[in-house]
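Action item from last meeting closed. Structure (355 res):
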């Protein structure tokens, strides 16, 4: 049982990220002092949405400079904090050098942050933003999981530097975090493991998230001939932020939390948007056949390898979210609300234009 003193500051790494921005807003709205660590506090384009959130809240916001690959760079932000949210980690699928662009920042960054936690001494709990990527690589693995569902007990054993390196980076980083947590007794670790995170970004024009790319593909005509029925899990970014908050401040929270709301697929993400946006945007209405994807996928998109298509298309994605519902009393937004709010945010920001 870890009680966190809410009069003490709380630290967030990567504070201007997609999930972290909503978490910072929640912390500020609750009246907390947030030590926001970002790569460049002077870059107003990337932090002005946080400044605005602070101005409209009861809380206080203080910026600090922090870099995943600079040892000790988070120590100043951590001073006096009992709770640290480590959200910073690169999330991009299309990379030229996976070791340099994904593995090093995720793994060394986690090590760097936790070394500082050990050094500073005031921290009682670390909440790590992990991912379902640390649980599985391909939807086909759901069927092989105990009871045919992914749970917190399952670890990813199939990703590698060559195949799905992003998934590999999240697995290595979370394993390292648990190893370091078990080697000491001053602080405890809780991990939040979401699948595909959708929902409105607080800073749409400067948010790097694969879900933004997927929304663009759904809405700009790239999938007007059809979408792959590719099994994925989806959760709202606002619910992920809430899950982090509850994991931090629920004294009994422990271990991993599979933070998924919906077992779904790419096609459904498009079809739930049809009632509201179908007359103005070229949204997909039907599934692309798997044989066609096997034929054209590897040509049109290097990530759509035959192995990936075989293991994910027309394969249901199934996960068990009962632990987070029971222990953190979490409930989740409907898929339609999440998708409509995400889509509208991109329209309002001028990122998506009607046909």
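Sequence:
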């Amino acid at each position: 049982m870890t009680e966190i003193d809410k009069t003490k500051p709380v630290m967030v790494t990567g504070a201007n990220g997609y999930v972290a921005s909503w978490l910072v807003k929640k912390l500020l709205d609750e009246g907390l002092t947030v030590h926001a660590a970002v790569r460049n506090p002077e870059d107003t384009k990337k932090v002005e949405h946080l400044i605005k959130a602070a101005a409209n809240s009861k809380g206080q916001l203080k910026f600090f400079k922090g870099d995943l690959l600079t040892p000790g760079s988070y120590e100043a932000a951590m001073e006096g904090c009992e709770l640290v949210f480590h959200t910073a980690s690169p999330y991009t699928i299309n990379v030229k050098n996976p070791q340099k662009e994904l593995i090093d920042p995720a793994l060394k960054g986690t090590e760097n942050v936790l070394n500082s936690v050990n050094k500073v001494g005031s921290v009682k709990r670390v909440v790590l933003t992990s991912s379902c990527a640390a649980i599985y690589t391909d939807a086909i693995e759901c069927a092989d999981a105990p009871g045919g569902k992914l749970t917190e007990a399952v670890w990813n054993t199939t990703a590698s530097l060559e195949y799905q390196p992003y998934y590999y980076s999240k697995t290595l980083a979370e394993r390292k975090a648990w190893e370091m947590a078990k080697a000491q007794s001053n602080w405890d670790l809780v991990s939040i493991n979401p699948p595909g995170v959708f929902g409105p970004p607080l800073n749409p024009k400067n948010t790097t998230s694969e879900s933004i790319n997927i929304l663009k593909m759904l809405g700009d005509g790239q999938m007007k001939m059809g979408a792959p029925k590719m099994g994925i899990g989806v959760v709202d970014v606002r619910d992920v932020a809430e899950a982090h908050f509850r994991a931090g401040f629920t004294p009994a929270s422990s271990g991993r939390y599979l933070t998924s709301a919906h077992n779904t697929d790419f096609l459904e993400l498009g079809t739930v948007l049809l009632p509201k946006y179908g007359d103005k945007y070229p949204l997909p209405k039907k599934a692309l056949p798997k044989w066609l994807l096997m034929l054209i996928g590897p040509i049109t998109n290097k990530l759509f390898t035959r192995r990936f298509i075989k293991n994910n298309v027309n394969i249901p994605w199934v996960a068990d979210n009962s632990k987070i519902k029971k222990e953190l009393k979490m409930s989740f937004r409907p898929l339609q609300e999440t998708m409509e709010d995400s889509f509208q945010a991109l329209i309002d920001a001028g990122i998506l234009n009607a046909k």
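Note appended to the action item: The radius of gyration is 20 Å.
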